[in-house]
Amino acid sequence: MSTAGCSSACKVTGKSSWPELMGTNVAKAVSVIQTENPSVHVKVLNMSKPIPLPVDCARVVVFIDDTNKVALPPVIC
């Protein structure tokens, strides 16, 4: 699974990616994202799920592993 190119499709006000959250517990990651860019909503998905279509420039996709840790850098997608 890759989120490469997701945020490049959107003109975003504020922060659009959170690579520093890799390995973080999902609840903390969601809180950080909502604090740093309150204009987006967060969609949490297991690594086995595809990126939801269509691209939503107000949605941050957070892929997690089986231990509820962020597995890929969260991005607007």
TrEMBL record:
Pfam families of this UniProt entry? potato_inhibit (PF00280)
Query: Cross-referenced InterPro entries, in alphabetical order?
Result: Prot_inh_pot1, Prot_inh_pot1_sf
Tell me one GO molecular function of this protein.
Answer: serine-type endopeptidase inhibitor activity
The domain of life is: Eukaryota
Q: Name one GO biological process term.
A: response to wounding
Coiled-coil segments, which residues? none
| Keyword Phosphoprotein (UniProt) | no
Q: Which UniProt keywords apply?
A: Protease inhibitor, Serine protease inhibitor
Family label: Belongs to the protease inhibitor I13 (potato type I serine protease inhibitor) family.
Q: What is this protein called?
A: Uncharacterized protein
